[in-house]
Design goal:
2 domains; nine-stranded mixed β-sheet; FAD/NAD(P)-binding domain; homodimer; four-stranded antiparallel β-sheet
């Protein structure tokens, strides 16, 4: 019989209908990005036979496209945090994450991660991942030096210091330029290759194979234009990325992000892993939520500016992480036709040289009145917002949005406005944060939070630690993917 | 075998495993609210044997709890619209709905509804539903007179007049007081009782019954503490409401609405219909979206006031529908600790007598400065917002939020502030707008938008016409439920 329960594309098949198994393994891993690599290494180290099936012709996934500033801390601090003079407790890190994700948070996963991310640091180091005992103090979206530690989120921005003591937790790999992701995947790929792991490239997972009780027993994979049946005695681990490249899924599940933004990820981020999981009863959660960014720094000096809507109103403390700013800017556009970043010439600084924002100059003015007219803002609105901001900034205060004193200084004539409206130039990258519900062990859960035997997942195929753009910090996704990839691989390997 | 694909709670069973059918019918309808009643009437009129299974001891569902101001128009206008001097074209109505729901809209359903809602008016009238040829001109959340026609949405509020000519489409039943819902369900129930329809009360649908190809062939229902197998030769129609009473589902699927709000619906709105649909592969969509309201009128005179956040900033044109205001107020609270409605004594008017908002007076002042201090707003912020508002209101203008001139007048001392913050008194009712994807015919769709044979749904078990609170108008849900309930019943009845 066909399994009646799902769309034809990813409909599972029954193991008893399979006459011949083409490949026999203990743990079958779908996807060879950060999560899949780590799952494979741990599963092999736990003694399991492991096979990886990767859609592309090489490893990497979206991890290789990222900056790979891995978010780690807690437990007294990583060696780098300690060397740089920071203390970080597990509770402090957990409190921070709770403040980040509110009622969308997965408390179990967060606690697990906060308790173990310093161990994860050691594990990465043992696999050759280099971290320098140094800090990058610049406000940056990514480290372009080989320095390690940097603030990659909202730790110092209102209201987060009320919830947790600010500590930097982004760990950049020791390599010049924005090359952390490629280096990380090169090292993890080498670790896979050193082990007795069968890697199949150009291999597309099509359907899960289940027994009569619904337990996952394998996966059908298309290799060389032929469908291969893969028996996975211990389990299948779905590490197939998110769905930012699947327009249908975006329109269906994440409509707020479905138009005008730029997906960042690899072409395989089509949600196939999520759909395979759903096809056997896995619950897909947090599907409406994406990471989105307005990367308005570098230059960091633009942080001295203010963001306003088409009423000339500010709407965020501009010292937030670019993801929080991006999300709020995007939501503001539900009732505002335009978003502008207002800066002075000092703040504008090296914008044309350093920025990759793509925002055009929408207006300039020797007076605010002039700029306000040029931007067609309500008469007096920007004058009020800016004069009020300046009056308080002079005293190091922002009674409206609580931008920290470090980023407060009066904005002086002449003025420049950058158009930060979606669709009018600026780069708004996004990727998905929804996926299969799972336990910290990697076990995929059904709607009643009961595990589906034999099915595991990690990375953006799951709803992991990061749940919203407004709480996101760089390194949370790679941290979550690599760490929970490891746990999922081990869990599958030791399953009885 | 058990069907492996879903959570145990609603796991479907295979028809070939059924030894005895307790009940045999053509069309089995789950739920006897507005959608279920209309489905039953149409299915019976199309010649099918029909059975209704209702959880409660009487008909009604959430329709009976509503005001039942049915949203209808287009096609030249309903008789009431015409009698009251309004013209309404199908395209105008469709343009309005498109503006309401943006990229969440279901174009097929909307077109179907706009083309046929005047026919629906006639159908309701034939079943005894009384509409008076009169208009209620007061801005009201519900009609307390027996007048029929009223504006129940954002038709006249910015930016909607840019998209469609404003026309009132809310049709209140001819009955005094807020009694439209009970009357509607009384009449529809009588129409059911006049037909040869088997109604089973105190009957809980548990699982769908499917054949080996995944087609739905019946439903298991618990009656008198015993499970009954119901064979539905033509189909099962799920009309079991939404999920506003299911806290787990809310936290999982609609986290923005899961805390501090008041669910409005009947106790059976637990999402059982949606979960049964999902259990056989139905796609649940728009699940993150709910209707939510801040019912700050009556008295309508409060519309002359302004809503501000804890920065003293306005964030919405206050002449919007209470659902749009409620949604924006709720979202504003992601970056604001307080929401206040600022009014003068004239605007406050009969608040204490007429309102059911529950908002407490947070402060009063003979000057704005005094009120601003009492509310702990940034110094000067409310003074700026209010003086700016007043300056323009005097000229009938609102260059910031484009409130219509009809609701613009300067707010005069002394001032009153009502605390509209969630959790501090005000009533924020909500219900869910996510559910099974379906065709206008009522056929339930899988993720690839392929129908699941034998399965139909209507009402809030589906994602219907209304998709967001910001685009909602009163009467859209009852209109959608009753109209598409009819179509679903007929579709099932004539299925080959």
């Amino acid at each position: 019989m066909s399994n009646p329960s799902h769309s034809s594309a990813f409909k599972p098949i029954l193991s008893r209908d399979i006459e011949h198994w083409d490949i026999d393994t203990d743990v079958a891993i779908v996807g060879f990005g950060g999560a899949g690599a780590c799952a494979a290494i741990e599963a092999a180290d736990a003694g399991a036979r492991v096979a990886i099936f990767e859609l592309a012709s090489a490893s990497g996934g979206s991890t290789a496209l990222s900056s790979a500033e891995i978010y780690m801390g807690g437990n007294g601090g990583t060696p780098v945090q300690q060397a740089c003079g920071y203390q970080d407790s597990t509770e402090n890190m957990l409190n921070y994450l709770r403040a980040c994700f509110g009622n969308r948070a997965d408390e179990d996963k967060m606690r697990h991660y906060c308790e173990n991310s310093t161990d994860h640091y050691q594990w990465l180091q043992r696999h050759g991942v280099p971290f320098k005992m140094s800090e990058l103090k610049e406000r940056a979206i990514m480290a372009l030096t080989d320095d390690c530690l940097l603030y990659t989120g909202n730790e110092k921005a209102h209201p987060f210091p009320d919830a947790a003591t600010p500590v930097p937790r982004g760990h950049n790999l020791q390599i010049e330029g924005d090359n952390g992701g490629p280096l990380l995947m090169k090292l993890l790929t080498a670790a896979v290759e050193q082990r007795d792991i069968n890697v199949h490239y150009d291999s597309r997972a099509l359907r899960l194979i289940i027994n009569d009780d619904g337990a996952v027993e394998g996966v059908v994979v298309r290799i060389d234009q032929r469908e291969h049946t893969v028996r996975a005695a211990k389990g299948v681990v779905l590490c197939a990325g998110g769905f930012c490249m699947n327009e249908d899924m975006l329109r269906t599940y994440a409509p707020d992000f479905a138009e005008g933004l730029v997906p960042i990820g690899n072409p395989g981020d089509t949600g196939a892993g999520i759909q395979m999981g759903m096809s056997v009863g896995g619950a897909a959660i947090n599907m409406d939520s994406c990471f989105v960014s307005l990367p308005y720094y570098p230059p960091s000096s633009l942080t001295y500016g203010i963001l306003v809507n088409d009423k000339g109103q500010r709407f965020i403390n501009e010292d937030c992480y670019h993801g929080r700013v991006g999300y709020n800017a995007l939501m503001a556009q539900k009732t505002s036709q335009r978003i502008y970043l207002i800066t002075d010439v000092d703040g504008y600084g090296d914008y044309e040289k350093l920025s990759y924002l793509g925002a055009q100059v929408a207006g300039t003015g020797d007076t605010i009145e002039e700029l306000e007219k040029e931007l067609a803002l309500p008469a007096g609105s920007l004058q009020w917002s800016l004069s009020t901001y300046n009056k308080h900034a002079k005293n190091g205060e922002d009674p409206y949005y609580h931008k920290s004193a470090a980023w407060l200084r009066p904005i002086k004539a002449p003025y420049v406005a950058l158009d930060c409206t979606v669709g009018r130039g600026p780069f708004y990258p996004f990727f998905t944060l929804g996926g299969l519900d799972s336990k910290p062990t990697g076990e995929v859960l059904d709607f009643n939070r009961q595990p589906i035997p034999g099915l595991y997942a990690a990375g953006r195929t799951t709803a992991g630690i990061p749940r919203t753009a407004s709480g996101y910090a760089s390194g949370m996704s790679v941290g979550d993917a690599t760490y929970f990839g490891r746990v999922a691989g081990r869990s599958a390997a030791v399953r009885r």
